[in-house]
Amino acid sequence: MAIVLAHRGANRYAPDNTLAAFRRAVELGADGVELDVHRTADDVLVVRHDAGTPAGVLSELTSSEVRAALPEVPRLDEVLDVCAGRLVNVEIKNVPGEGDWDPTHRAASLLVELLGARDGRDRVLVSSFDLASVDRVRSLSPAVPTGLLTWGTDPLEGLAIAETHGHVALHPDVRSVAGHSPGAIVTRAHERGLQVNVWTVNDPHELASLAAAGVDALITDLPDVALRALGR
After folding, report:
1. Residue 58 contacts residue 92 (beta carbons within 8 Å)
2. Could you report the per-residue pLDDT of 205-224, keeping only the tens digit for each?
3. Which residues pair with 215 in a beta bridge?
4. What is the pTM of this model?
5. If DSSP states are collapsed to H, E and C, what string results for the chain?
6. How many domains does the chain have?
7. Residue 179: its pLDDT value, please?
8. How confident is the model at residue 133 (pLDDT cuts 50, 70, 90)?
9. What is the mean pLDDT of residues 134-159?
10. 92 has a pLDDT exceeding 90
């Protein structure tokens, strides 16, 4: 049965990537959440989609400066506490050309350190469009499950890359999956021991169809709608 992950929390009920959105996702019964992390200048992981802010780029601000300028932006550890017991899909944001692009993949290392300091009590799945970032996580902590995010990529090509690099999941965008046979993609993935977690799926019929095709997770802005579509 497909699980439901609230994209940046229940973002239709509260601002995305905020504690309020994550709390609401839990209240609605989502199996977990998806979120975005960046590092600050003093090596704290904070949860926000974009690196750029009115106060400057996150990686150039200390965590105290982020909290003062953007009090709604939580630290990752705060979100993990709110979502205790639920799956948290942590997307590492590290995109070439953006303000906080980091070829050393420091955020990946910090994430492994944080999870280790929390004694492995969190249920997480780490993903990124940046293959090197999830490769870094896997090399530092093979026990932490990792997945490759893709957009506009043939899902079968994405599966081959994920498998070659030893990741446990592929996270393709819904439009790319719709252009193929979802069932065939899932079958190929499961034969190789990989999960298929599709983003961002909001249409009830599409949610039900992908679940019927056997996808492992549906990442959605509408966790309540998704749960109803799955008969839960």
Report:
1. no
2. 999 999 999 999 999 999 99
3. none
4. 0.98
5. CCEEEEECCCCCCCCCCCHHHHHHHHHHCCCEEEEEEEECCCCCEEECCCCEECCEEHHHCCHHHHHHHCCCCCEHHHHHHHCCCCEEEEEECCCCCCCCCCCCCHHHHHHHHHHHHCCCCCEEEEEECCHHHHHHHHHHCCCCCEEEECCCCCHHHHHHHHHHCCCCEEECEHHHHHCCCHHHHHHHHHHCCCEEEEECCCCHHHHHHHHHHCCCEEEECCHHHHHHHCCC
6. 1
7. 85
8. very high
9. 98
10. yes
Residue with tokens 């506490």: 81
What CATH number is associated with residue 113? 3.20.20.190
Domain hosting 143: range is 3-229
The two tokens of residue 78 are 């705060």
Average pLDDT, the chain: 98
Both tokens of 225, joined, read: 């709608």
